[in-house]
């Protein structure tokens, strides 16, 4: 793929930190060697799900090959060892988020389930008729719909904090929405469409001054930023491990122990009880109270391996490379005539949404796909946000640390081809 | 590249950029909305039905090149046709875009719609091409619900 000299010049030159060895890193991700339509795969759909390193794939396999058994149930060797590994994964997740205790980490299917869990337990217990839940205009449907359902059930009100044209929260407007009826604030840490990194620590402080608890949707953030829940001060934090180079179907809900203990259970069943009779059931302590039924044990093995992988790589090194890619891609895409980037916040993670004059993202995506380039097109599960920017859909390139400058050049060339074919 | 050229034929690009019969119809007696939740394509179809014949048809909405061109060419194709003829054309069109038709689709029944033959190589785009046809069907059935491709 030809690289135009202007673009090549824009690449960062000398960097104070040791060069990030992207070629070496790519060796860890088997799928990156795949061909799509006969072309090398260029994977720019990382905000939808990230690819998995061999270490994660092998860890899941290890469970099924040599440790498969149920957890918290058996006295036999397999169950004992699987349980130990399961709890070790929880301890790794605790360290990863810097939670105070491992019992503050609940294994769930993903961010969607984590938010539904909080809405269905904490929300149902604490939100009553006339109360309010505050979210922002840039939320994913999974941080809108559970609150809408709760508000409909309780006759409560969902309030939406507005954003500016760059895709940044209007902090003063946000503060005006907080009042005596506000029972919870739920905002995303990083926008899946705009890439905006929200000032969540300030939001937590603002809410806590009024004694309002805060849930942060970390689906997009955890792969790009070092998350420290104690430093952020948030009450709940949610993570989808498949966006964190881990397996699908496993995620984390962090909650402050005091809150989790006071919350009613979410699902009833095995493992979430300490004793059951037909007259009365006593619930188990946290985290088990929220983990009814056999969990995704293999997923926790993969998750543990993903955290180990990121620790070894150094999330900061990865983030630095992603920022260089973001700057390079932003500049290169901005030079394409008729292309407009949606989401130009000052603080951004490596997500670039854009629209092209007269072209529908779906057609853009189809043409790029023929070159092996995987981008997301559509509303990105954020229809209200599309309405805010007056577009039906966008094309989104979301970058990960295994992406390269050459791949961005391929995207740029692909977009020129899009114009050639679609006019 | 050849698959792309087959998909985005000049006729399709032209109709997507300058769609025909792209207008509301205040005196229509059948109307329906179509929505493709996957990509956000939205179409509103207006039909003036005279007995069992489509006297006039128009559309509004926003969508990708394939769905817009499909709507534009639908309006050209079905105007003046009877309900039975429309149903037969839809069947033929559906077979064409899903790759089920034995012929190349250039038979007299489909006419200009044959330009959509390239869609069959792009299974995820079939819904874009058929959305407006499903919408027409629900308009003719007088269904209240929004037609979707799901």
Kindly describe this structure:
The complex is a heterodimer of chains A (about 425) and B (about 150). With about 425 residues, chain A is of the alpha/beta class. Chain A folds into two domains: about 5-35 and about 315-420, Aspartate Aminotransferase, domain 1; about 55-310, Aspartate Aminotransferase, domain 2 (3-Layer(aba) Sandwich), CATH 3.40.640. Chain A contains 15 helices and 17 strands. In chain A, helix 3 runs antiparallel to helix 11. Chain A is globular, with a radius of gyration of 22 Å. Chain A starts with a helix and ends with a helix. In chain A, about 50% of the residues are buried. Residues about 1-10 of chain A have low confidence and may be disordered. By secondary structure, chain B is an alpha+beta fold. Chain B has a single domain, classed as Sufe protein. Chain: A (Alpha-Beta Complex), CATH 3.90.1010.10. Chain B contains five helices and four strands; from the N terminus they run H-H-E-E-E-H-H-H-E. Chain B has helices at about 1-5, 10-15, 65-80, 85-95, 125-140; strands spanning about 30-35, 40-50, 55-60, 145-150. Chain B has a four-stranded mixed sheet, with helices on one face. The longest helix of chain B is centred in the middle third of the chain and has 15 residues, at about 85-95. Chain B is globular and about 45 Å long. Chain B starts with a helix and ends with a strand. The model of chain B has no long low-confidence stretch (mean pLDDT about 90). The interface between A and B is medium-sized, with 19 and 23 residues.
């Amino acid at each position: 793929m030809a690289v135009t000299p202007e673009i090549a010049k824009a690449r960062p030159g000398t960097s104070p930190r040791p060069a990030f060895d992207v070629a070496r890193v790519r060796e860890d991700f088997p799928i990156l060697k795949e061909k799509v339509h006969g072309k090398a795969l260029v994977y720019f759909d990382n905000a939808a799900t990230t690819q998995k390193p061999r270490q994660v794939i092998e860890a899941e396999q290890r469970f099924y090959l040599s440790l498969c058994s149920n957890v918290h149930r058996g006295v036999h060797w397999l169950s004992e060892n699987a349980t130990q590994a399961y709890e070790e994964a929880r301890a790794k997740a605790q360290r990863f988020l810097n939670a105070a205790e491992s019992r503050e980490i609940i294994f769930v299917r993903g961010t969607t389930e984590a938010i539904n869990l909080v809405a269905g337990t904490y929300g149902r217990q604490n939100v009553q008729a006339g109360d309010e839940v505050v979210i922002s205009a840039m939320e994913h449907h999974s941080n809108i719909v559970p609150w809408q359902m709760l508000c409909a059930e309780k006759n409560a009100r969902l309030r939406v904090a507005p954003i500016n044209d760059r895709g940044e929260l209007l902090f003063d407007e946000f503060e005006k929405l907080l009042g005596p009826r506000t029972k919870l604030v739920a905002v995303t840490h990083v926008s899946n469409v705009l890439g905006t990194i929200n000032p969540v620590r300030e939001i937590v402080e603002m809410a806590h001054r009024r004694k309002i608890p805060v849930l942060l949707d970390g689906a997009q953030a955890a792969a790009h930023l070092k998350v420290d829940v104690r430093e952020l001060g948030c009450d709940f934090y949610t993570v989808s491990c498949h966006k964190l180079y881990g397996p699908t179907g496993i995620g984390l809900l962090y909650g402050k122990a005091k809150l989790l203990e006071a919350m009613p259970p979410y699902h009833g069943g095995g493992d979430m009880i300490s004793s059951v009779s037909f007259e009365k059931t006593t619930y188990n302590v946290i985290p088990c109270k929220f983990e009814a039924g056999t969990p995704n044990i293999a997923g926790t093995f993969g998750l543990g391996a993903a955290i180990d992988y990121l620790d070894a790589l150094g999330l900061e090194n990865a983030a630095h490379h992603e920022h260089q890619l973001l700057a390079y891609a932003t500049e290169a895409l901005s030079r394409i005539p008729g292309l407009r980037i949606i989401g130009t916040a000052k603080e951004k993670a490596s997500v670039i949404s854009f629209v092209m004059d007269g072209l529908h993202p779906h057609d853009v995506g189809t043409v790029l796909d023929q070159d092996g380039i995987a981008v997301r097109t559509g509303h990105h599960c954020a229809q209200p946000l599309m309405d805010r920017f007056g577009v039906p859909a966008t094309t989104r390139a979301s970058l990960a640390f295994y992406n390269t400058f050459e791949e961005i050049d391929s995207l740029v060339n692909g977009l020129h081809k899009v114009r050639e074919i679609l006019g | 590249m050849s698959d792309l050229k087959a998909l985005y034929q000049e006729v399709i690009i032209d109709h997507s950029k300058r769609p025909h019969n792209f207008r509301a119809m205040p005196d229509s007696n059948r109307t329906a909305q179509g929505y493709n939740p996957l990509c956000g394509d939205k179409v509103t179809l207006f039909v003036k039905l005279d007995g069992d014949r489509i006297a006039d048809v128009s559309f509004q909405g926003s969508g990708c090149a394939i769905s817009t061109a499909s709507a534009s060419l639908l309006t050209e194709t079905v105007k003046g046709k009877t309900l039975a003829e429309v149903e037969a054309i839809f069947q033929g069109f559906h077979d064409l875009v899903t790759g089920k038709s034995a012929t190349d689709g250039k038979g007299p029944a489909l006419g200009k719609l044959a330009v959509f033959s390239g869609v069959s190589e792009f299974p995820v785009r079939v819904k874009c091409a058929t959305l407006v046809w499903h919408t027409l069907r629900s308009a003719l059935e007088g269904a209240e619900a929004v037609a979707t491709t799901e």
